[in-house]
Design brief:
mainly alpha, 2 domains, 60s Ribosomal Protein L30, Chain: A, disordered C terminus, 4-stranded mixed β-sheet, 2-methylcitrate dehydratase PrpD
């Protein structure tokens, strides 16, 4: 069959997005709200972080009319700035949701763009939820098609694929026809960027912020009639081949409209790279077995997959290094017995006893160990060796966080993020998002300086 007669990736996805209604996604709405609740939890946890406030100072002189909420703050900014800021704050602590097959963090780029856009128009919660679920599906399906080689080549997949989800979701919210949605996806292909080398720095968050902002920008351009090449993703000189290899279209389209990528989403109990969670859990188990004998630990060996070692066998110079460090995660689990935001904060990272524990840790490859699993062995001064293996850590699909866990994560985010937002009001608003007539009014009601009146429900 001639190539030109085969529908393009952009148009196939666009036809799906355009044709899908609330009725089609309603069964996924609970997981959508769980993901959005986690999005608010992580964004509130970073609301006053210096990285976020520096970005706010940078953008403020260039912001247009303040239409859109900055999560954790009272002062709005324009939609493009708000989408950028809310995406970086949601991703900053490495505490956001994770799609296990691709290691994409789906919510930050899509939800940040959608909520910023929704405040500029009278849009219902069901419209936003529908677009969010579709955006997650688009970004993760494109990620499926290029994984794992895309990430292995150094592309930060949350950023590079997140922009497609943001573009498709915003185009849906703008009620563009299929042709316009396809153009938005194609325009996004020209703006996709972000590299893994920058993970231990704030530069990583810039690309996540750009995924949200530029995805929204792509949809707005498409609304004005901008066009893109039909095969901007899969063409001979298109996005996929430029940034990796020929895409696996069977994985991209398998079950389209019948199975949903958001159903696979997971939520982190610890603000660290997801591949380190098994290390933390194993160390918690070992700490329980050790009792008061922490000072008898002479050395620690962590066995894991090549991905675990590539991401986390690194020196720790700051809190960003710590969030992607096998050595620091061991120190949290064994020495501190906790692994929350405080345990990865700068004042904890530089503690002499924590640094000393990190020095006792070495990482070794176990090619039989699946990604996301770990085996931790303690060598004690008595000669005793204690070992724990964790295959499915807390927060994984096998042992998921409950709704109450995510709610408590949001409350803790308000505390650690030093926000003056009311946690319970945010929680209540997200759980009833599908009943809200106007999302913009809802978001404005959550700002502390706003009137306490909540928007009406359907």
């Amino acid at each position: 069959m001639p190539q030109d007669s085969i529908p393009s990736v952009s148009r196939t996805l666009a036809d799906f997005v355009a044709a899908t209604s609330w009725t089609d996604v309603q069964a996924q709405s609970r997981e959508g709200r769980r993901s959005i609740l986690n999005f608010f939890a992580t964004a509130l946890g970073s609301a006053r972080d210096p990285v976020v406030t520096a970005a706010m100072r940078t953008l403020a002189p260039f912001s247009g009319v303040g239409t859109s909420t900055i999560i954790g703050h009272s002062q709005p900014m324009d939609a493009l700035c708000a989408s950028f800021l809310n995406a970086i704050s949601a991703n900053l602590l490495d505490f956001d949701d994770t799609h296990p097959e691709t290691i994409i963090h789906p919510a930050a780029p899509v939800a940040a763009a959608l909520f910023a856009l929704a405040e500029t128009r009278k849009l219902s919660g069901r419209e936003v939820l529908t677009a969010f679920i579709l955006g997650v599906d688009v970004e993760c399906r494109i990620g499926n098609a290029v994984s794992p080689r895309h990430y292995a080549r150094g592309w930060h997949i949350t950023s590079t694929c997140g922009i497609f989800g943001a573009a498709a979701a915003c185009a849906k919210l703008l009620r563009l026809p299929a042709e316009g949605i396809a153009n938005a996806i194609g325009i996004a292909a020209s703006q996709s960027a972000g590299n893994v080398e920058n993970l231990p720095s704030a530069a990583k968050n810039v690309s996540v912020g750009n995924a949200a902002r530029n995805g929204l920008f792509a949809a707005l351009l498409a609304q004005q009639g901008y066009e893109a090449a039909p095969r901007a993703i899969e063409g001979p000189l298109g996005w996929a081949r430029t940034m990796g290899d020929e895409p696996d279209l069977a994985r991209l389209f398998d079950g389209l409209g019948k199975t949903w990528e958001i159903a696979k989403n997971t939520y982190k109990p610890y603000p660290a790279g997801i591949v380190f969670h098994a290390v933390i859990d194993a160390c918690f188990h070992l700490r329980d077995r050790l009792g008061r004998r922490i000072d008898q630990i002479e050395s620690v060996t962590v066995h894991g997959s090549a991905l675990l070692l590539a991401r986390g066998d690194r020196p720790v110079n700051n809190e960003r290094d710590a969030r992607v460090s096998i050595h620091h995660c061991v120190a949290c689990g064994l020495l501190l017995g906790k692994a929350g935001v405080t345990e990865f904060a700068p004042e904890t990272v530089i503690r002499p006893d924590v640094a000393q524990m990190r020095q006792k840790v070495r990482a070794e490859l176990d090619a039989q160990m699946p990604d996301g699993a770990a085996r931790v062995s303690l060598h004690l001064s008595s000669g005793e060796v204690l070992t724990e293996t964790v295959i499915s850590p807390r927060g994984s699909q096998a042992t998921p966080l409950s709704d109450r866990d995510i709610e408590e994560k949001l409350r803790e985010g308000v505390r650690t993020g030093r926000s003056d937002w009311d946690a319970d009001r945010v929680i209540g608003a997200v759980w009833r998002l599908d009943t809200i007539d106007e999302v913009g009014e809802l978001l404005q009601s959550l700002r502390p300086s706003s009137a306490m009146r909540l928007p009406t429900s359907t």
